[in-house]
Specification:
The structure is a single chain. By secondary structure, the chain is of the alpha+beta class. It folds into 2 domains: 119 residues, no CATH class; 158 residues, no CATH class. 21% of the residues lie in helices and 23% in strands. A hairpin with a 2-residue loop joins β1 and β2. The two termini are 22 Å apart.
């Protein structure tokens, strides 16, 4: 998070006191805005440029919320990395890098600039479009589901330790049960005030050619089948993303109509569904999940 001292950039006809910034690129974008990069761009009325954007969120001198869109992605990436490490960074994009200034904020921001009125939307006549506002994450839906998957990716070890591999069903049915999942109990699935997620929805082993389980949850089988289809027919850019993980593994994030998947290429997967509010469904490796994850990783977008 940026400091709120004298950070300012030129935005529209006023100074912007910078509060935070995020990347909007094919490999890294706020997942609350959409299942893929083009959908996230469309939520802001932006064309999905290949190099992406940086979003700088702040307040003007009257306290109004503004989102300044810049094309200097590297500058914003350095600022975000510095803040994540607890370092100060004066984010001051050049005016020539400003693509547009949008009223409002597309994401929730918990801080405010000192010495100006409390955050509020600009007057309607200050811009030619309605003010942006964060998606509603107080009830379960696509935004909440994607936030939950993001949180699992960030806190993988915490989620993984709840799962006993012995509980996954096997091909002969001798081990585990789809009715009694490992790691019972509730854990917050969203880092942004999200709903509680329950791992008691059922464990599934991926056993057949498509990577779908031979027993268990119909929704999980549907997700794995649709994910397998991505390998043959690439989905919109950013719908499958690969990022760093310890060792030689990669963390995979994939989304589709009504579902989100998070996995480690050397481990299991977790699935969240719109129709299963708050539940996190673990999927065992089985003989075919490793191949599916490897194939998805090969076609996934990666940070540059």
């Amino acid at each position: 998070m940026a400091g709120t001292d004298e950070d300012a950039v030129a935005a529209a006809d006023d100074a912007l006191y910078v509060l935070t910034a995020v990347l909007l690129t094919p490999a890294k974008f706020p997942s609350v805005l959409g299942d893929d990069y083009p959908e996230a761009c469309a939520a802001l009325g932006l064309p999905p440029l290949a190099d992406g954007y940086g979003l700088v969120l702040g307040q003007d001198g009257d306290g109004a919320r503004w989102t300044v869109v810049v094309d200097d992605v590297s500058l914003v990436a350095v600022a975000v990395a510095s803040w994540d490490c607890g370092m100060e960074y004066d984010l001051s994009p050049d005016e020539r890098s400003v693509v547009t200034a949008l009223p409002g904020w597309p994401l929730a921001v918990a801080v405010a600039a000192p010495g100006v009125p409390v955050p509020h939307d600009p007057e309607p006549d200050a811009a030619d479009r309605p003010a942006l506002c964060p998606p509603d994450t107080t009830v379960w839906g696509p935004a909440q589901r994607r936030l939950g998957a993001d949180e699992i990716a960030l806190q993988w070890a915490q989620w993984r330790e709840q799962i006993d591999d012995a509980e996954f069903p096997t091909r002969d049915g001798d081990t585990g049960s789809v009715d009694g999942a490992p790691g019972e109990g509730e854990t917050g699935a969203s880092g942004d005030g999200g709903a509680q997620a329950d791992t008691s929805g059922g464990a599934v082993a991926a056993d057949d050619r498509t990577g779908a389980g031979t027993s268990g949850h119909d929704g999980v089988r549907r997700v794995l089948t649709e994910a397998r289809a991505y390998v043959d027919t690439p989905p919109p850019l950013g719908r499958v993303r690969s990022s760093f993980a310890p060792g030689d593994a990669r963390t995979l994030r994939a989304d589709g109509p009504g579902w989100s998947l998070v996995a480690r290429t050397d481990d299991i997967a977790f699935i969240l569904l719109d129709e299963e509010p708050g539940e996190v469904l673990p999927v065992g490796r089985g003989p075919s999940l490793p191949g599916l994850l490897e194939a998805l990783d090969k076609m996934a977008v990666r940070p540059s």
